[in-house]
Design a protein that fits this description.
- The protein is an alpha/beta fold.
- It has one domain.
- Helices cover 38% and strands 10% of the residues.
- The chain has helices spanning 5-17, 52-61, 83-93, 113-122, 139-146, 164-167, 172-177, 193-204, 227-232, 239-249, 263-274, 280-288, and strands spanning 30-33, 65-70, 97-98, 103-104, 107-110, 127-130, 153-155, 178-181, 254-255.
- Helix 4 links the parallel strand 5 and strand 6 (127-130).
Length: 296
């Protein structure tokens, strides 16, 4: 939401003005991210100088929940007093507004138990989301995470996406808390995912680990993100899967990854997952022809 503020200014206006372009069963519940230089941030290192006040106002205007991505896994007690992160929480904590039929509250995606306890005590206005950076791949432990009262949502590790025989046996309350990461591109057999996330946490804390950057050793790890590669992966959740498998089973929360991938790639995700086929070219043209956007 910070990294692609200018993009969403255009897209959300189009989404509101031409709702007929988009699937009526699909709504934007939240947009997530964190500004640059937030030491609590994790998952990705984001580059954005956009004013948090402007980002907040944009999402408030559209009745969309903000989710601050504070999923750093290596925080210590001394990090909790960080002025920038606390100021951001103060700004976003009381910004929920009444929008006719429902209250829009803001959330925080969190990994660290230390940070979770701190935030719950100091900023109880937020709801909390358990981060996929925990890399919970055992289904029983995933269920334990779903049963924690602290969390309103739990983002599943993508390797649990197709455990349908187990997913279908969850209770309705548990299903309501599951959020699937639907377009992950990583190698499904990767054993270094936790280490990869920890390296991002070190970077956000400005802690170095040796002289060289972390390099993924998984097959295809040096290729970067490709949507076509994600689509071919065994954990990919297609739009047909959402409509014909997951929704009938009682699941309704789906997360699109995209931080650091560029606006052009974000647009492709939104075209595929949200836009009716007959309107995809029209939406693409509207976005590409906007002179304020740099999509490459």
């Amino acid at each position: 939401m910070f990294e692609f503020y200018e993009f969403y200014k255009v897209f959300l206006a189009l989404y509101r003005e031409h709702r007929e372009y988009f699937y009526d069963w699909c709504e934007i519940a939240s947009i997530y991210g964190s500004p640059s230089d937030c030491i609590w941030a994790g998952g990705r290192v984001e580059i954005s100088d956009e004013e948090p006040e402007l980002v907040l106002k944009l999402l408030q205007d559209y009745g969309i929940s903000v989710r601050l991505t504070f999923s750093n896994s290596l925080l210590a007690e001394n990090h909790l007093s960080d002025r920038r992160c606390n100021k951001l929480c103060e700004m976003y904590a009381d910004s929920g507004k009444q929008t006719g039929v429902k209250d829009i509250s803001n959330g925080i995606i969190v990994h660290s138990e230390l940070l979770l306890d701190y935030l719950r005590n100091r900023y109880p206005q937020f709801y909390f989301v358990s981060s996929t950076t925990k890399v919970i791949t055992e289904f029983d432990k995933f269920v334990e995470e779903l049963n924690r009262e602290e969390f309103s949502y739990v983002v599943a590790d993508f390797r649990l996406n197709k455990a349908l025989d187990k997913l279908q046996n969850l209770t309705c309350r548990q299903k309501d808390k599951v959020e699937f990461l639907i377009n992950e591109c990583c190698y499904i057999g990767c054993r270094d995912r936790k280490e990869c996330y920890e390296e991002v946490s070190r970077k956000n804390l400005a802690i170095t680990k040796g002289d060289a950057d972390y390099r993924c050793s998984a097959p295809g790890g040096d290729e970067g993100y490709k949507f076509s590669k994600a689509m071919a992966g065994p954990a990919f959740i297609s739009i047909e899967d959402i409509q014909n498998v997951y929704m009938p089973m009682g699941f309704s929360n789906f997360k699109i990854e995209g931080r650091g991938l560029g606006s052009a790639m974000i647009l492709e995700f939104l075209l595929y997952y949200m836009t009716k086929p007959e309107y995809q070219l029209r939406v693409r043209e509207e976005m590409y022809l906007d002179s304020m956007l740099d999509l490459f």
